[in-house]
Amino acid sequence: MKRISGWVVMLVAVSLVLPGYAAEDVSVRTPDLSGLEPAVAEQIGQIQRALTDELAKPKPEPREVAVAYGELGQVYYLYDRWRPTLYVSATSDTSFFAGPATDAGAPTPVTRRERQIESGILLPIRHVRVQHAVRLSVVRAESDYTTSDGSFSRSRTPIRAAWQSVTAHTYGYSISGEGGIAAGATTEIVRSGLGSSADATTTTADMRAYLPGLAAHHVVAVRVGGGASIGDPTVGRTFLLGGPSADSGLNDLGAGAFALLRGFAANTFAGSHVALANVEYRWPIARPQRGHGTWPLLLHTVHAALFADAGQAWTRTFDRHAIKWSGGAQLSADLVAGFFAPFTVSSGVAWGRDGSASVSDRVTAYFRVGKGF
Questions:
Q1: Same structural domain, 306 and 189
Q2: Phi-psi category of 253—alpha, beta or left, where left has phi over 0 and alpha has psi -120 to 50?
Q3: Do both 25 and 155 map to the same domain?
Q4: Which of 355, 248, 350 shows the shortest CA–CA distance to 311?
Q5: Residues 178 and 322 in one domain
Q6: What is the pLDDT at residue 36?
Q7: How many CB atoms lie within 10 A of CB 313?
């Protein structure tokens, strides 16, 4: 597949130097190189900049444009052919709302300590304007639950599969992804025949779109997603909803994968099913791009957003009249710590309304480290 893409690039390059060439020059989007080795990213970046500079000339030289396109195609083929990637990870975490949801749709205060090891294969498929990734893995997890009535343990050996595609891009002055989409889906299958304590199946899907706003680097960000867990909740999932949770990626199977519902406290609602929609209008305010003296903290960009959230968590039946709503505004800052580690902090205020009236309407202020989505 990659070899075919390389030949397509070369054929386009050759066509540019044929007599009678009169095609319209187009700008070249800068790909996301953050996941590459530094030396590789630098080489690809140099070739990308050379191509962009050539296209920016009033009368680009067809032969030089062809050479730049050809070099870009060759170097992408060179560094993207070593696939797939094998990985092993081990984690230990504690959750304080791990029990099944109550009849009122609230989380149960059950403590779970889980020790997990995962081994799998990751297949990235990267192109200049789009990136895909497929992941398959097997997990072994041991969980200890503590309830008000005592304690018990569960074992899980799930098989996981995940896919994601990203066409959105991030540029030097971007405050979020721009001009594209990001989508992913994940499933986890737990069966007693594979050594688990019970059976369960969990599936999630996440779709995001980053649309142009009213000015340069203004973004209308839209997210729609949800998850469902069928089977024994102690080896499946109880999804949590509520709070200003930070983004955990397109393929998150955790309880808080779709928790972003500002205007309510964290983990206010719960259920074996969850549906969520978020809409934000984001715009930059200032780009100081400086710090104080030699302090290892740089303020890169200040930006703001207006947002609306809607979500519902349920276990038995979905009730549209019980949907939770919120709306508000937030102020964010993109920072760089230690001269190399970028991160985002946000502070905002939101008004929340619970359609089921189990929680009273309220105004909530929040602070978050990390982006929403």
A1: yes
A2: alpha
A3: no
A4: 355
A5: yes
A6: 59
A7: 30
Q: Which residues of 356-367 are buried (b: 16+ CB within 10 A; e: fewer)?
A: eeebeeeebebe
112, containing H or E segment: strand 111-126
Low-confidence ranges of the chain (pLDDT < 50): 1-23, 25, 28, 76-80
What is the distance between the alpha carbons of residues 7 and 98, in angstroms, rounded to a whole number? Answer: 52
Model confidence pLDDT, tens digit, residues 281-332: 999 999 999 999 889 999 999 999 999 999 999 998 999 999 999 999 999 9
What is the Cα 339 distance to its own chain's centre?
24
Lookup: tokens for 41: 């990213």
Structure tokens at 264: 């309510």
- The alpha carbon of 274 is separated from its chain's Cα centroid by a whole number of angstroms, namely 17
Residue at which a domain ends, from 45, 79, 113:
79
Helices (H) and strands (E) in the chain, counts: 3, 16
- Rg of the chain taking only CA atoms, in angstroms: 24
What is the residue type of 261?
L
Say how far residue 343 (Cα) sits from the centre of its chain.
14
Report how far apart, in Å, the C-alpha atoms of 373 and of each of 56, 158, 242, 255, 368 are: 33, 27, 15, 16, 12
Domain containing 14: what range?
2-79
